[in-house]
Amino acid sequence: MTAMGIYGAEIAKEGFGGYVAEVLVLHFESFLGVLEAASNFTLNQIIGNPTKKFDTPLVIIDPIDSNRNLGTAISAESVGKFVLAARSFLKKPSLLFFKPKPLKPNIKNLDSTIIIKFNYKARSPDIIWGQVKRATTAISGQLELAGFDVLRKSSVTDEKSEAAMIFLLRLPKIEKFMIKNGPPVLRKKESESYIAKNYKNKLLWVDESGKILSLQDRSFHDAKLFLRHLLKKNLSVSGVPSGLVSDIKRGFRISDGKQAASKSIKKALTELTTTDGLIFSSP
Asked: Is 32 helix (H, G, I), strand (E, B) or coil?
């Protein structure tokens, strides 16, 4: 679990804590027993005997308290990595699963990676991790709304003063134009309103289904410029947690993956841009 980066129940990891590992071994009786079971986990897998329903990717009932689900803190991503690692290890056991070779970022993917780095005032690790993760999710949503496809995202903090939000995009620069969908022509009031608002666009037409469409300029086609505008001009409506607003207002830096400097950001970039050969082993 440590090698996969999924050991620890804290917010930073959202993985398997020490007690959970002990409960799994207790339930499945051995290390190999755990791996055999994990390799066949199904959606909402239940381990133990619950007295009520839980809605988490993996339900692990505390043997001491049947009302407690130990899987609450485990993310779907961590469950997925654990299952794939179990399958790969059983297929081809190796000490690399316990001490893997260090990976390097995929250079080809770094060009499509954007980093937002900022400093924050001291606070507890759990609080800052929670805030940065929520901010990353919010900014990812804003990027999607603006037309940028976010393939992966990651949150980073050194737990001292530096934090970062990292996004791997399909394209950091997209088409300058976009198609704006309008109402059906037969909805008179709505269609007339749409035409009045969009008649100056580059092109207006009726499609095969009878709807009005228009071709218009995007507000932003460069993700870096969009993010800079969002954080400088629209931070209050960006979805960033209020606890981070003052930190970001004091200053932030937007760069691509090739400009990463800190150790924690480089590590996150490696995980974000590189295929893990251990869990994605060849057939």
From this structure: helix
All residues at 6 or more sequence positions from 234 whose CB lies less than 8 Å from its CB, including other chains = none
Six token digits for residue 145: 């709304």
Supply the pLDDT for residue 279. 86
pLDDT tens-digit series, residues 126-166:
999 999 999 999 999 999 999 999 999 999 999 999 999 99
Q: How far is residue 241 CA from its own chain's centroid?
A: 16
Domains of the chain: 18-97 (1.10.1410.30), 107-173+221-273 (3.30.70.590), 177-217 (no CATH)
**Beta-carbon neighbour count of residue 169 at 10 Å?**
21
- CB neighbour list of residue 2: distance below 8 Å, 6 or more residues apart: 98
pTM score, two decimals? 0.87
What backbone phi and psi angles, to 5 degrees, belong to 256? -100, 175
Sign of the CA dihedral with 74 first, then 78, 84, and 87 last? negative
The sheet that has 252-256: what strands, in order across it? 150-157, 162-169, 113-119, 252-256
99, pLDDT greater than 90: no
**H or E element, residue 216:** strand 211-217
